[in-house]
Amino acid sequence: MGFKESSASGKMIAEERKRWGFLGLPLTFTKFYLTEKKLVVYSGLLTTTEDEILLYRVLDISRKRNLFQKMFGLGTVLVTSQDKSLPELEIKNIKNSDEFKNMLSEQVEAEKKRMNVRAGEYMGIGGHHHPVDLDHDGIPDPPQHEFEDGY
Q: Which tens digits make up the pLDDT trace of 134-143?
């Protein structure tokens, strides 16, 4: 059993496994799958859970390593997204954390470009569903046009 690649999730890019902090041994039942369109977390032995973050919803990616992680070649990748069930994901104790972070970052940018997602759309700025009140007077501001001064 495990994550099955499908046309809906896109081509598999990378797979990582959470490792036990001591010596970096893969003694856990959590796997992370990166596809062209999603980041999937698959965890559990008797009861399994599969959760995903659509890549175009990712807002920020960072990486951290403590002393023990450095000693055993591990790292933690932190993902912040607009996903309701998984707004912050800590991909902890993975072996190729720098490479995984870079691949994830590249795929996020590619997916945002493919979906034609602009920064304002995924940050909740503008649009018809969320009026903007930049001056905080309680009245939604009129739409701002990019080139108001003619430039």
A: 666 666 656 5
Give the three-state DSSP class for 110.
helix
CATH number of the domain that residue 96 is part of = 2.30.29.30
What pTM did the predictor assign?
0.69
Which of 20, 57, 54 is closest to 34 using CA atoms? Answer: 54
What's the total number of domains in the chain?
Answer: 1
The mean pLDDT of the chain is 80
Residue 23: inside a domain:
yes
Chain Cα centroid distance, residue 40: 9
- 52 in a domain, yes or no? yes
Strands of the 75-81 sheet, one edge to the other: 58-64, 75-81, 88-94
